[in-house]
């Protein structure tokens, strides 16, 4: 039942309370800056209240002295001639303006720095949190939308904090002070002046709610546009090869056009609110002048008092104009803040358990005990897996695509947790180890190994941060990568293209193997590491893999059974179950599915050799 109440509160207060509560630890760190800025703000407000008073005294004591009811009460000032008094009041007017400008400067600069520091820390926390969210979250989320939250959503909050929220805060305090002074000057006129406030508040709440709904939809559409752009640009080769440009452009155009409509609607609502405020200001000033002049004529009020009153009244409505002007921006910032909170409040499925310890140096003894797993309820991927791998053994995982082979090694990496059963390394449940300490002791080489747009040296060193140049070169030699690296323009300092696009597939794989080798982990996972390579590159990669896995517990996923033959034992996985297991010789004697797959690949291999011979002889 609490959820709807919180939702109603966020709708009424545009999410600001929730955002402030969530980010209060970051705000607390800027306490000194905020205190100094607030003190400067109070000084600015006090000086703002003083600004019209020199004009009052000029009217009442110099221009229209007949309305003066009593002297200043300060002998030095009461003894001044009108000209000297005029000079003093005009100098005072300049002094007040100068002091107010100084106070405003320190207030704005201090609060801007505080806001920037807070939001910079929030961005860092958001990025860090995204890195730790489970794969199940990232599989469902769109990368472009997440990038939008890390970049433009944070920027929008910063801009609005400095450009809208802070001026509104200053004007709101000023409004309270001016209303108090107006009641002190003349309570009847003060009541007339604020008579239009309830109408303004009602209209503002109604329109602000509508604006907030529109801009939240707009931010969602902008996230969808970013996701579409990121997907199409990231897969531009496939997009162009399949001629998908028109289809993707239509999708982007649809989101873009609807976002434009939402933006125009929000601006129309904000403009309507601003015009309404201007009308209310005119009505309020007219009413005050109508009654105020009557009071002046009967000498219940001085002309200077009326001047101060009208001046205060026009300034008092300034925060209302600001609120109308910046309502759309504040609503957008609130929507951005809530989008950030949605990510920060997402709890990772996979995280360190309470009491988890750093994993000691592992030996590589792996046990699966009745392990079952499903990405979604009632859609099992793995069912009742039970096997063990002794230190240094090589186990091959074979079978049709989609059977659960990659899922099995993902469980070993604790990218997911089993829904039933447990996985042990060296006799201890993986969940008892801290994630980072476990994953640092597992090396991975994938079919499509990702390289980063940095130097070759850094790409290899990512396998073991802090690795020395000597260790990096040794790993490259082990991976048969040293020679082609040295042939590059800058050697190990050559900057690679994004995702290693400037290298061939074989070169990318050998750098990935060097990255795995520099880690010197006791457990190695190889997921189709030679798929798509020509014979020359495949031979070089296989040599490197043989050196990498020597003496290490190794899990090899492969559809090519040629490298599987030498494995210590083989698991044939199909439909989420281990249907056969044993050595190559044992499974051939069994005459089951593995034997049939091996016979088929052998026959295809013989046919290929005959075709090659025919081509050569022909």
What can you tell me about this protein's structure?
The protein is of the alpha/beta class. It folds into two domains: 18-344, ABC transporter transmembrane region fold; 366-617, P-loop containing nucleotide triphosphate hydrolases (Rossmann fold), CATH 3.40.50. The chain has 24 helices and ten strands. Helix 4 (31-50) runs parallel beside helix 9 (143-185) and helix 13 (245-297) packs antiparallel against helix 15.
Largest beta sheet, briefly?
Answer: 6 strands, mixed
Number of helices: 24
Helical amount among residues, as a percent range?
A: 55-70%
Number of individual domains: 2
Task: Specify the CATH homologous superfamily of the largest domain.
Answer: ABC transporter type 1, transmembrane domain
Labels describing this entry:
four-stranded antiparallel sheet, 2 domains, 65% helix, alpha/beta, 618 residues, ABC transporter transmembrane region fold, 24 helices, disordered C terminus, six-stranded mixed sheet, Rossmann fold
Short characterization:
The protein is an alpha/beta fold.
SSE layout:
Blueprint: H1 2-12, H2 16-22, H3 24-28, H4 31-50, H5 53-63, H6 75-78, H7 82-132, H8 135-140, H9 143-185, H10 187-193, H11 197-234, H12 236-241, H13 245-297, H14 303-316, H15 318-344, E1 366-376, E2 379-389, E3 394-398, H16 405-412, E4 420-425, E5 428-429, H17 435-439, E6 442-445, H18 456-461, H19 469-478, H20 482-486, H21 505-519, E7 523-527, H22 535-549, E8 553-557, E9 569-574, E10 577-582, H23 584-590, H24 593-617
Parallel strand pairs: 3-8, 3-9, 6-7, 7-8
Antiparallel strand pairs: 1-2, 1-4, 4-5, 9-10
Helix pairs in contact: 2-15, 4-7, 4-9, 5-7, 5-14, 7-9, 9-10, 9-11, 9-14, 9-15, 10-13, 11-13, 11-15, 13-14, 13-15, 19-21, 21-22, 23-24
